[in-house]
């Protein structure tokens, strides 16, 4: 009778291990709304205006019929396309050592109010991070916070997906702005 | 002996519950080709042509050397870049109340026939939907249906992925066209 | 007593089957870093320079204030936007029969060195492949290999995700270049 009892106990233990194995495995997190990784960065955009070539990190490269490539267009810059290579910093100081570059393009896409759309990458190549994070999404920049998608990643950010929350941290006229980016990854590999 | 029997029965029940838990969990759907959510929308594009500023929802912002920014270029518009902020409606009527905005860009990218490539977002901010859906993909617009990718989402569409089928529902000269978009999400969170 | 023993044995077998079912199922591969599919392609870009319209597969459609649409701009082409419809081949020969088209855009996005950013699709419509693969990512083209993201797919490549490694296989002046693309899918459906 004893050995039977022992077998039953064995089964019970095996059960709990199995349940743990089934539900505590990485698969558990697949549809979790708890981020598997979080990061905060700032990036700094200085638009070329015909006079600041040395400091400029971005340039107007597309414009509507009523615009040009040195001044953002009337009608809330509707139709302007800007290409950028902006320094990424860990704090909100433009002069902090950059930890990477934000590279890609944004467009202004509405006549009536300021709103933009972004497609870009964070590119890292330092001892702390190597690899890239790719983003795309609408940026209705009059809102305090705006969510865009993390659509992929490489290197340290291999195959990641998630959501990045953008906040305009500062802007000076139409030449400089600084974005805070709170990245939440929900798929990590 | 009885209690032993009862334990065995208990085990059996636990087994079936465990099996159910393992295989009927959300994870089961991860590689399913049955959509977890489906939606149909229309969006309406009115290209600025130098005379329709008030009604225009899009503008030519890039052109090849042989083009300009008020008329779509020769050679199947190859090289034209268009930025848009188009109303989204639930039916095929331009004058129906918009439920959101389609914002982003498309390009014409072939000399020999009409074909385009799109990157844009659906932006919703109403009582029925809040959030955004991000799309990218090739749009060989002479085909009756074309599939592009849902590459991410935010808000109500948090972390979604899927496939959207585009159909040209109507077009009038080179100023207006209407697309029907059948969205099928295969990853819902 | 015998039947009890048999039940126990039955349980043991069921256990192992269950464990197998739980861990050897397709879900196991979800976070695997072993590709579920691999492909290698080449694509060929011939930029329009004012004289090669017939052979050109791409055109400059955006430029900074100091540039134009027939010659890539000074300062490492910073600000140039190029739209392309490039033939895809299975080997490195421009004259091999194309198996599809690479369609989308790239931008040059840095003043100090050559670096670009890409968003495009591979479009297939042959007996061997039907469907599309969508890509986005930074392309620091002075590096021997660069990783970008596979952000989605349709048709034969339904819902795929992965990483594509780009290598500059050849370039001739500023008119022709050929990229080798090693695609590794980590999500297959």
TrEMBL record, chains A, B, C:
PROSITE patterns: PROKAR_LIPOPROTEIN. It holds the Pfam family Dirigent. It comes from the Eukaryota. Residues 1-24 form the signal peptide. InterPro entries: Allene_oxi_cyc_Dirigent (IPR044859), Dirigent (IPR004265). Keywords: Apoplast, Secreted, Signal. It is found in: Secreted, Extracellular space, Apoplast. One of its GO terms (cellular component) is apoplast. GO terms for biological process: phenylpropanoid biosynthetic process. Dirigent proteins impart stereoselectivity on the phenoxy radical-coupling reaction, yielding optically active lignans from two molecules of coniferyl alcohol in the biosynthesis of lignans, flavonolignans, and alkaloids and thus plays a central role in plant secondary metabolism. Belongs to the plant dirigent protein family. Homodimer. This is Dirigent protein. It comes from Lactuca saligna.
């Amino acid at each position: 009778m004893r050995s039977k009892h022992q077998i039953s106990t064995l089964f019970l233990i095996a059960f709990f291990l199995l349940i743990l194995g089934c539900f505590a495995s990485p698969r558990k997190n697949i549809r979790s709304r708890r981020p598997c990784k979080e990061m905060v960065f700032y990036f700094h955009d200085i638009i070329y205006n015909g006079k600041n070539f040395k400091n400029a990190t971005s340039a107007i490269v597309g414009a509507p019929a009523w615009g040009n490539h040195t001044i953002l267009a009337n009608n809330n810059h509707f139709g302007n396309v800007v290409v950028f290579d902006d320094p990424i910093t860990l704090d909100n100081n433009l002069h902090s050592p950059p930890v990477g570059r934000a590279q890609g393009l944004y467009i202004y896409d509405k006549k009536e109010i300021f709103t933009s759309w972004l497609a870009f990458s964070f590119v890292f190549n330092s001892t702390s991070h190597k690899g890239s994070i790719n983003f795309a999404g609408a940026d209705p920049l009059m809102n305090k916070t705006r969510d865009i998608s993390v659509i992929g990643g490489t290197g340290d950010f291999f195959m990641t997906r998630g959501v990045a929350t953008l906040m305009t941290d500062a802007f000076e006229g139409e030449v400089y702005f600084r974005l805070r980016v709170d990245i939440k990854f929900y798929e990590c590999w």
